[in-house]
């Protein structure tokens, strides 16, 4: 089934926040944000701004009717700065004006006097000053210190990864409309309608039942709107609450880039020990997470880094410690993979380091250490593994020996161009790591004309979850999908939702929808059984017709619906689902946090231009564990999109803050994301299809985040190509691998190597 949004998307008819027709009297908001990363706010002068034409009011922390606090996990984040500023981009004031232009013009008239304080942007420096968001955590299995003594080979190193802009096509925004009796309806571009409702409740002081949050769809979230949509919705709602006029704020791209948090950069140390057969016996890592100025979701992201720092390998002795470090940058937040990719980059760097030193391809180490069913993760869960199946099938289907031979022959025949190849196996845990978030609800109504409406807590952000919800209802009722509508996500229909995140949205909301539909179906079957004089267990609905076991009757879905209603039997149900059998004990750092894991293997080929440092991705070949995919088209879209987003993070997307904490890569001219010219020339995708029982909806495994991590393979393929040109170089593990870094690695890093290579190039040129 095609994504149900594809028609309206292609025709430009899909409605996003900025497409909602505005009511007369709507005010436009614009934010005055801190130009200084850390300082004491001595004076804030909004008087000039207030005098500007069209300006109705300027809000600061003094206007807050509830509490000045929007922190989710830890209450450490004021909505408006009060006496101190903690990052460039922190809101100080909000102008409300009759037009967007007037609001933005007035913002420029606001003056802040700020006494600068020392700025920290580096997580290791923050840790040295004990600037931590939460105490460090350590995951442990076996005894790594003792085990290193038994290793034939021990290597140490360091790796760094940069952040990443979410760059959703639709920027952050909200539209708050006052209703009667003090209520407010808020349209928000958020992954977490309940989080928005809660933040507004805190800031305005209104009870949650006074606040309706409604979301039709997002033009992308990628984690950036899991928590950070709250700010803009709270600002608009506060404005609407105070003025009793509708308030709209839709961020300009540069405001969005400047004021919102991103993926977390990490800087990590590692130590890896192997036996003579390349089995990884011991692994240690200390990871420093750059959290930014407030907690936001950083503690949860840090936890997932620990969960995934052994990726898809069984390692019997592990000690992994992570620090969440407070710096003077915008609070970093959820981003597809949620700390998992950063954890995987550490172990993959350690393996690459060992491979460099031992003179073997990294895949020989990777392959020998893949998880087998029953192996235990450092966090205590035993795995139901598809790692070896995916790896073997990838090598077979994409003919790894032939790919290797192709690369070898190319490299033997070329001086200025070199190819590299790398394998990236992945393993990603599905469930919110915070067990209590693994619940969802669905409200299903069957109308008397036989049409159906489904409302859930799921937010459609391009990932196709609405299509999957519709498929669940269509499959349970066995009716034409055209009869079913998926409603907007609304806090009055579905309460206390978890955000659409953790790749678990379709599982959680799909199972709740399944439960609701099954309950209605059971009641309808009882009515049909009464009508036909048989037992309910003998009633089936197939393609809209009622069957008595295998015999088709004259009773159609439409008639059965009417009859059910006429017998005063409910055609509505509210289904609730919570993931069974998951738990985690933080005092022991052990448990069973994930419902299941998703596996896969990618093989990446790249070609580096060794004169220019530029490169092309020749192909990425992916073997992905989908379980029994309920929508292979949508899943393919998620895999291709995730891959390219991961490639961007690992290769070209480079966030630059200066020492004063100012974002330099603050526009699309200075921050490069993959475009059609930089994507892989070929993406081959093959599913590992399994019929095994698993807790996913219709055994169709979650797909949103895991494929991003295939992109890590490109980093290591580039590194391998560089070493084909200049074997003396051991490039630092410092992502992204931009063309500039490739060039420096090709020539400059190792003393003497540059001269040797120049000599070589001169000699080749002379010939
Ligand atoms: N795909 C699109 N097109 N747009 C998005 O914003 N977000 C990703 C992923 N795929 C995203 C996307 C992230 S971060 C997550 S957690 C999942 O989708 C969320 O949706 P799911 O739980 O339904 O997979
Ligand atoms: N993934 C994504 N979002 C989350 C998680 C998680 O594990 N926990 C809390 N928010
Ligand atoms: Mo996704 S980072 O869990 O929104």
The gist of it:
With 767 residues, this protein is an alpha+beta fold.
What would you say this structure looks like, in words?
The protein is α+β, with helices and mostly antiparallel strands and 767 residues long. 30% of the residues lie in helices and 25% in strands. The strands form 7 sheets. Strands 3-5-1-12-9-10-11-20 form an 8-stranded mixed beta sheet, sandwiched between helices. A 6-stranded mixed beta sheet has the order 7-15-14-13-8-30. Strands 16-27-28-29 form a 4-stranded mixed beta sheet, sandwiched between helices. Strand 28, helix 17 and strand 29 form a beta-alpha-beta unit. Helix 9 (298-307) runs parallel beside helix 10 (340-358) and helix 14 runs parallel beside helix 15. The chain is globular. The model has no long low-confidence stretch (mean pLDDT 97). It binds ligand MTE, hypoxanthine (HPA) and dioxothiomolybdenum(VI) ion. Ligand MTE binds next to helix 15 and helix 17.
């Amino acid at each position: 089934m095609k994504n149900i949004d594809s028609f309206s998307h292609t025709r430009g008819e899909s409605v996003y926040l900025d497409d909602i027709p505005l009511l007369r009297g709507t005010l436009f908001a614009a934010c005055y944000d801190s130009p200084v990363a850390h300082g004491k706010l001595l004076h804030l002068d909004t008087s000039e701004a207030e005098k500007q034409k069209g300006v109705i009011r300027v809000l600061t922390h003094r206007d807050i009717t509830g509490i000045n606090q929007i922190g989710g996990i830890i209450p450490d984040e004021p909505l408006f700065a009060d006496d101190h500023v903690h990052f460039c981009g922190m809101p100080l004031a909000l102008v409300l004006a009759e037009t967007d232009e007037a609001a933005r013009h007035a913002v420029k008239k606001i003056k802040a006097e700020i006494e600068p304080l020392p700025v920290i942007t580096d997580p290791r420096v923050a840790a040295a000053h004990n600037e931590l968001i939460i105490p460090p955590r350590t995951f442990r299995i076996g005894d790594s210190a003792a085990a290193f003594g038994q290793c034939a080979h021990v290597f140490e190193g360091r790796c760094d990864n940069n952040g990443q802009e979410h760059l959703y096509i639709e920027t952050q925004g909200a539209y708050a409309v006052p209703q009667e009796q003090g209520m407010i309806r808020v349209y928000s571009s958020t992954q977490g309608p309940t989080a928005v409702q809660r933040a507004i409740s805190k800031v305005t002081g209104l009870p949650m039942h006074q606040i309706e949050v409604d979301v039709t769809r997002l033009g992308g979230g990628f984690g950036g709107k899991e928590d950070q949509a709250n700010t803009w919705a709270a600002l608009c709602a506060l404005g609407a609450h105070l003025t009793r006029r509708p308030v709209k704020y839709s961020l300009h791209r540069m405001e969005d880039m400047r004021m919102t948090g991103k993926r977390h950069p990490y800087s990590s140390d590692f130590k890896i020990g192997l036996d003579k057969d390349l089995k990884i016996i011991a692994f240690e890592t200390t990871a420093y997470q750059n959290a930014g100025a407030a907690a936001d979701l950083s503690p949860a992201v840090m936890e997932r880094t620990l969960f995934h720092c052994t990726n898809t390998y069984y390692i019997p002795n592990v000690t992994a410690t992570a620090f969440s470090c407070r710096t003077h940058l915008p609070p970093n937040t959820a981003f597809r993979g949620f700390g998992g990719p950063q954890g995987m980059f550490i172990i993959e760097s350690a393996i690459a380091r060992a491979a460099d030193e031992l003179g073997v391809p990294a895949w020989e180490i990777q392959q020998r250490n893949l998880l087998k069913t029953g192996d235990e993760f450092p966090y205590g869960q035993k795995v139901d593994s598809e790692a070896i199946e995916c790896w073997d099938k990838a090598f077979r289907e994409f003919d790894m020996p032939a790919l290797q031979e192709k690369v070898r022959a190319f490299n033997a025949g070329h001086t200025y161009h070199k190819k590299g190849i790398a394998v990236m196996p992945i393993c990603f845990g599905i469930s919110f790591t915070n067990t209590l978030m693994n619940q969802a609800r669905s409200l299903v109504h069957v109308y008397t004309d036989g049409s159906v409406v489904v409302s859930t807590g799921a937010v459609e952000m391009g990932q196709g979850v609405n299509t999957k919800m519709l498929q669940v209802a269509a499959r349970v009722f066995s009716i034409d999908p055209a009869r079913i509508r998926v409603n907007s996500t609304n806090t009055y229909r579905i309460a206390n939702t978890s955000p659409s995140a953790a790749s678990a949205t379709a599982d959680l909301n799909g199972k709740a929808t399944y439960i609701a539909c099954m309950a209605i179906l059971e009641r309808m079957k009882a009515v049909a059984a009464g009508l036909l004089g048989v037992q309910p267990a003998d009633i089936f609905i197939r393609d809209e017709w009622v069957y008595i076991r295998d015999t088709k009757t004259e009773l159609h879905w439409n008639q059965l619906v009417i009859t059910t209603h006429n017998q005063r039997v409910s055609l509505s149900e509210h289904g609730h689902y919570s993931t069974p059998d998951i738990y985690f004990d933080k005092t022991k750092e052990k448990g069973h946090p994930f419902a299941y894991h998703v596996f896969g293997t990618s093989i990446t080929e790249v070609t580096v231009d060794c004169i220019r440092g530029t490169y092309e991705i020749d192909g990425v070949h992916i073997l992905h564990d989908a379980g029994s995919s309920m929508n292979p088209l949508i899943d393919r879209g998620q895999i291709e999109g995730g891959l390219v987003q991961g490639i961007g993070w690992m290769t070209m997307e480079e966030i630059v803050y200066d020492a004063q904490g100012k974002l330099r890569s603050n526009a699309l001219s200075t921050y490069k994301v993959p475009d059609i010219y930089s994507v892989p020339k070929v993406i081959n995708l093959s599913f590992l299809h399994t019929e095994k029982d698993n807790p996913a909806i219709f055994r169709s495994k979650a797909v949103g985040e895991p494929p991003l991590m295939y992109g890590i393979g490109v980093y290591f393929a580039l590194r391998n190509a560089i070493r084909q040109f200049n074997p003396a170089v051991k490039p630092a593990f410092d992502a992204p691998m931009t063309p500039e870094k490739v060039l420096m690695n090709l020539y400059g890093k190792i003393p003497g190597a540059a001269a040797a290579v120049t000599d070589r190039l001169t000699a080749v040129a002379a010939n």
